[in-house]
């Protein structure tokens, strides 16, 4: 479950960029 949260944060960062 933690992996999903981490992935989501990275994804958001990529999109935010």
From TrEMBL:
<protein>
    <submittedName>
        <fullName>Uncharacterized protein</fullName>
    </submittedName>
</protein>
């Amino acid at each position: 479950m933690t992996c999903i949260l981490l992935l989501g944060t990275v994804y958001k960062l990529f999109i935010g960029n």
